[in-house]
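Handoff note, outgoing to incoming analyst
You'll be picking up this chain. Sequence as last confirmed:
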Amino acid sequence: MSLISSLAPTSGTGKPGSPAKRRSRTRANISPATIVSALVLLIAIMWALFPGLFTQHDPNDGGTTPALLGPSLDHWFGTDQTGRDAYARVVYGASQSLLAALVAVGVGLIVGTAIGLIAGTRRGWVDDVLMRLIDVLLSIPAILLSLSIVVVLGFGTINAAIAVGVTAIAQFARLSRSEAVRINTSDFVAAAYGSGGTFFPVLVRHILPNSISPVLSLAVLQIGSAILQISTLGFLGYGTPPPTPEWGLIIAEGRNFVATAWWLTVLPGFVVMAIVLATHQIGNTLRKVTS
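Most recent structure output, in case you need it:
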């Protein structure tokens, strides 16, 4: 064990990879855009967890409110064709969209990382077979693959999330494989095998911890892509059924009123765009910090 520890990557003050160097690089990469992005993402998370703190309106009941009212202090995003508060529907829709995005990224992260690590560590025919399967996934357009899976599984938030997650498996597998190949050639991994270590213990204790950082950065980036894909499925009618608020469905319901009530599509679309850009900014910052 002492031999493995001596061969494992170490960090000294001022050297590449040292804590001091890493802290300096982190401070340099935290730009005002990253701070604003973090605030935007925090607001979206708060919407999902505590929607009642941000609006007093019922997202599914218009009551006696007139339909198609413009944005005002009482109705920040106006009202839709049935008198429902559009801002309330966006706030309550955050739980559906963000939950689905997290499930999708979780599916891609767990399955894709496992495939990539096994392929990059075992190599040989195992690597060839697994990577050819990944190439097949990459050859199918993501939207076509997700639509096909949703049709098989049925409509709904979780099914749409699983479908989007399957489309992300290939990206996680390719990245984790490249990291596993790099780490697998390190001296401390060879020492672990030489000390009697077997495949799975070495994989879990040495290869996985030293190759996971870029994969986690990709996971943050994929949250934004997952939100877009799930919103697209909702827009096409393959996601959460109405009247449950979901961002893609909200935009789809307002598309017939673009000429007379532009706020029903523009304002929810702006929210989706802001959150997607925020996740990409945070993901890029994490990638620079961990690289």
